[in-house]
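Subject: mismatched residue count in predicted assembly?

I count 222 residues in my input, but I want to confirm that the predicted structure covers every chain. Input:
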Amino acid sequence: MMRFAPAILSVAVTLGAAFAYFWFLRVPAIRNHPALYLAGFALGAVIAAVAVWRSARWPNIAALALSVALLVLGAYFNFVFARLPAAGAVLKVGEAAPDFTLPDAAGAAVTLASFRDQRPVVLVFYRGYW
Amino acid sequence: MQILAISPDPNERSQTLAQKLRARYRFLADRDLAVTRRYGLVHSRGGPSGEDVPIPTTVVLDRRGVVRWLKVADNYQVRPDPADVARAARGL
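Triage response: the counts match. Full output below for your records.
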């Protein structure tokens, strides 16, 4: 059992990083650094690689395969899939936001300019519920 | 401070989301993305089935409607910390 302690550690680090990604989605300070979970996968891969280098037994190889697979998928997700294009040059700090009127949940028309001289406004553009 | 949350979602769906999150947001439906487009915030064919979607963006406006703080996401996993938004809006 102790012989495969590095393999078990590698799997624990790798899966721990994967669970932590979902666990901390609501904690901005962690969520906003998605490369952290890639670092976890990379650490799992290094531990497994050392174990394989010492002894090419199947538990070590399986741990290496798992951590490398998650590292590759995670890197693709973070650096390619989740990337967004730059916004058009409409909004600039110090310039007025374009006015608009849109219906709210009750169907009532809401005009941005109606808040003028009343209170500050935070606009949140979001992609919607999929 | 007034929070206006704008998405192409139909309002019933946003309402459900608001109840689920217990959020004091006012949800506005921009069904055809006309306003989102006017703000330069459309991600062409960025949706799961190739439809246009908004680029997640948070904008803080002062009482005169002038942009004072702005965060446009470049990775959809990253969203502004509400504490940063509150700090930007404080005292406006």
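The domain at 4-89 of chain B is CATH 3.40.30.10 (Glutaredoxin). Marking this ticket as 'not a bug'.
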